[in-house]
Design a protein that fits this description.
Blueprint (H helix, E strand, L loop, with lengths): L3 H11 L8 H11 L3 E5 L5 H8 L5 E6 L2 H7 L6 E4 L11 E6 L10 H14 E12 L18 E4 L5 E12 L2 E10 L4 E10 L3 H10 L2 E7 L13 E8 L1
Parallel strand pairs: 1-2, 1-4, 2-3, 4-5
Antiparallel strand pairs: 5-11, 6-7, 7-8, 8-9, 10-11
Helix pairs in contact: 1-4
The chain binds S-adenosylmethionine.
């Protein structure tokens, strides 16, 4: 009724990548355009790299993601390399100047082992002095409390590529330590449920995150609490990190 390919298309409708409109995209885009070679870890449907090429990036661009349907959509642009795999499987010795992990993809790394193996993979793919830039939601902001159908800001209505009117919302299934298990529900406007999605997201605090980075031989060059590059404070909703490979 609603295939993985449909879900990848829906992702793009719900999350249009646009540095002229969205502050998170305008934070990342100059970094990407200014780097000779870029590895986008957890690239999903590839929108960011598509736009980088479209706007004139001439260097090596590689998107890496374990989600086949998302990567199939990314492959609509053939002048970018697309690799099916996880962060831990990033190309060793590839000498990238920049690795990115955006759209809170870092929060898909659930266990300490996932985090360590992913950081080791990204470290191995960067050149010495290369940078890894990513964000994770700050646990103090408790973003999951807004992921409910009773929050109008969390209920999206879109028309999909085949003209169907759809409604999408989230709910929290459980919380165990710093891991929040959520579900997404996609329905027609009359309430007919088309598909459910489940996902675990880890909310690392700053000290734990920086401990993992140090252990993986990354030096934190800058850390922000918001896309305007404000420092992390008590009301920050994000932990945005620029880490340099030691
Ligand atoms: C919320 S999407 C973000 C996609 C894209 N970066 C964006 O900003 O729109 C998270 C992505 O992370 C990918 N992902 C999950 N686990 C991963 C892992 N271990 N290594 C790399 N990517 C992973 C998922 O397949 C998914 O495409």
């Amino acid at each position: 009724m609603f295939s993985d390919a449909d879900a990848a298309a829906l992702y793009d409708l719900l999350n249009p990548w646009d540095p002229d409109q969205r502050p998170e995209d305008s934070f990342y885009f100059p970094l990407v355009m200014g780097a000779e070679s870029v590895l986008d870890v957890g690239c999903g449907t590839g929108s960011m790299l598509h736009l980088a090429r479209e706007r004139g990036h001439v260097g090596r661009l590689v998107g890496l993601d374990p989600d086949h349907a998302a990567l199939e959509r990314a492959r609509r642009r053939a002048d970018i390399e697309w690799t099916d795999g996880t962060a831990a499987e990033a190309e060793r010795g590839a000498n990238f100047e920049l690795a990115t992990m955006m759209g809170h993809a870092f929060q898909n790394l659930i266990t300490d082992q996932d985090v360590r193996a992913s950081l080791a993979g990204i470290h191995g793919a960067l050149r010495p002095g290369g940078r890894f830039v990513f964000e994770t939601r700050h646990p103090q902001a408790r973003a999951w409390e807004g992921w409910t159908s009773s929050n109008p800001d969390d209920v999206a209505e879109v028309i999909d590529e085949s003209g169907r009117a759809l409604r999408y919302w989230h709910g929290v299934d459980s919380i165990a330590g710093d891991v929040v298990s959520i579900s997404g529900t996609l329905a027609e406007l009359d309430g007919t449920v088309l598909r459910g999605f489940t996902e675990d997201l880890r909310f690392l605090d700053v000290a734990t995150l920086n401990g993992f980075l140090a252990e993986a031989a990354f030096e934190v060059e800058a850390q922000y609490g918001d896309w305007d590059m404000a420092p992390i404070g008590s009301s920050s909703r994000e932990i945005i990190t620029i880490a340099r490979r030691g």
